[in-house]
Prior knowledge:
It is built from 13 helices and 19 strands. It is an alpha/beta fold. Strand 1, helix 1 and strand 2 form a beta-alpha-beta unit. The longest helix has 30 residues, at 305-334. This is 2-polyprenyl-6-methoxyphenol hydroxylase-like FAD-dependent oxidoreductase.
Amino acid sequence: MKALIVGGGIGGLAAAVAFDRHGWQVEVLERADEFTEVGAGISLWPNALRALDTLGVGSVVRSRALLSMQAGIRDRTGRWLSRTDTDELERRFGQMAMLHRADLLDTLRSNVPPGALHPGVTVHEVTPDGTVRHSDGTSGGDVVVGADGIGSVVRRSVVPDAPAPRYAGYTAWRMVTSPVDLEDGGETWGRGTRFGYAPLPDGRAYCFATVNAPQGGVEADVSALRTRFASWHEPIPRLLAATEPHAVARHDIHHLPPLRTFTAGRVALLGDAAHAMTPDLGQGACQALEDSVVLAASAAGGRHMDDALAAYDRSRRPRTRMIARRARRIGRVAQWSAAPAVALRDAVMARTPRSALVRSLTPVLDWTPPG
């Protein structure tokens, strides 16, 4: 049995590892010339670490990560609005991990069989019978996995009435600093603006900033960010001072409206190709990892392939829809800009007990891998 995977990011490589562990032949087609990841950090919640354990790489990822750091949300003066009870989260659900995305990608890539990775291949069309037409010819598989991101060619081929991605109303800058002294992470919420940061294992820090803006209408280098956040609390100005211009990348934030199906014939979508969500819950890559584990287990479970992929769709579509909806809701509130609304938001957050956050995260973090 063969799984042909379109897309060599985190979701695609995780799917390759998952199918390989079930004894399948795997082949990964990646449009880029190299299997690389942008210079940014990634937070892995306990559900993602359980998926990585199922893939057999959880211990390696933990060894390359910082585990269970303190975090929370402040206002721009540094006043705490919400503190994350990380001890209780860890007790109930397990550890969290923070690492560079490239380290996660490298770990997954090193567990894909030699010869299975094919960079520099552009996919043009996929048909439900498992045929993939691409720049090197034609390939096929017993299952074709569309892991080719929010602009997925696979999705357009097999779900032609799929809605287009929608702009969330804000743009984001992601960056990795030079080595800095930083013990904990967190987010700071202003008026239509946010800044988040977290330490990385090598002494650098991963940071992001968001600003309400017209789609495609904002370009800013690090000097403009330094000016915008100059009056915000430390360590934000210090982190921006430690950021080189080449280390900043800007992307408008989009999300994908719910699809009516994640599968068609022998083709299944996962990750951003199926359910691209705003980053406000930190669950985008986490859900792609869950997808890969569930899809491989469903396909390898001895059922007819139609039944297997239908089971995957039933399992993943409601869960990812719920999480994407929660992420959008958080993002809207976090990006409020009207002064009265922001004052109300901050007051409510400051009065909300930590236990409420733990309860609200339970449906997201209590996922258990199949089998």
